Amino acid sequence: MNKPSTSANQPVAPGIPADIRCAQDYELVARRTMAEASYAYVAGGSGRDLTVAANLAAFSQWSIYPRVLCDVKDGHTRVTLGAQTFLHPLLLAPVAFQKLAHAAGEIDTARAAQATDSCMVCSTLASCHLEDVAHASGPHKWFQLYFQARRNDTLTLLARAEAAGFSAIVVTLDASIQVASARALQAGFRMPADCVAVNLQEPSAGQSAEEIELSPGDSRIFQGVMRAAPTWSDLTWLMEQTSLPIWVKGVLHPDDARALQAAGVAGIVVSNHGGRSLDGAPASLTVLPGIRAAVGDDFPLLLDGGIRSGADVFKALALGADAVLIGRLQLYALSVAGALGVAHMIKLLREELEVCMAQAGCATLRDIGNEALLRCPGTN
Q1: 116 neighbors 109 (Cβ within 8 angstroms)
Q2: How many domains is the chain built from?
Q3: What gap in Å lies between CA 142 and CA 128, rounded to an integer?
Q4: pLDDT for position 218
Q5: What is the pTM of this model?
Q6: Which backbone phi and psi does 271 adopt, to 5 degrees?
Q7: Which of 94, 114, 234, 260 is 20 to 30 Å from 173 at the Cα level?
Q8: Would you name the residues annotated as active-site residues?
Q9: Helices H, strands E: what count in the chain?
Q10: What mean pLDDT, rounded, does the chain reach?
Q11: Would residue 286 count as lying in a domain?
Q12: What domain range includes position 146?
């Protein structure tokens, strides 16, 4: 006789559509709840979405070995990142302009984080004030920081984050140039009037190349867009301005990972900006093992990009991540059912992860290693 299945057959909470049976279903249902152009923008990345597709495909290259006769009755999903301990390894990624998905925007996401004991990473480009997001969040909250063209503006954001109680800073370094997604352009996407980066003193602080005065012969890219892009000296300066741990997001090369580790950052987020930066960059999961090898076993690593299920989370942990960031699924769930949707999505992901752990004989996250995976035949 078959054992009873897990949460798929359990009653769905009021307010959650009946056809949400797993975390990834939120992506499908969000097509009904988001404006078509907004969905195209969220689902798309940059250019032809090659890296978006690569992020998803990378997980299908691995299978999980089931194991038998393993005692997992004392199992748990706790993880320690730096000085902080979390009940599970699912962090809510810094997704900008969340009012695209729901009128309450980041406030509802923060409420879901509090309800599920999750860490929310609030974006510089949030459509709600960072102080309000912090107030609605639980005890674990980090702030994602974009360097501003003027250092004083960067310091203002940093001081506000510290005063609001954010416990870590996540500096994104791979998004100085973003090429629009062809699918978003084709859908005619325009940022709605209520989606404004309210935490920036000047919503246009990321000055475009068209607004920068160029000399004859100057490149619109090198002397234009990249004029204010951060360098190593900027990162060094930032680390001198705060006692909060600083994580760096947007790392794909092992040499960059080694250099950042040597510079003293608290941890690294292996990420290609969800495919929104260099189109054609490798999948985050693909480069993760090489970065883990470069920094050693004890240096904190997060993976961002392509997570759609608890099995994906398991594979990321097996290949070297300590925890993962959930990006697009967060926005899809927010659009479907607000704070309740985001909380339900996290619950489903966590249960899906626990199912994988139990069947793979892993009672704790530390038990999950690359020996738990088998590369599928025919994949590189």
Answers
A1: no
A2: 1
A3: 15
A4: 75
A5: 0.92
A6: -160, 145
A7: 114
A8: 273
A9: 12, 12
A10: 92
A11: yes
A12: 17-199+217-375
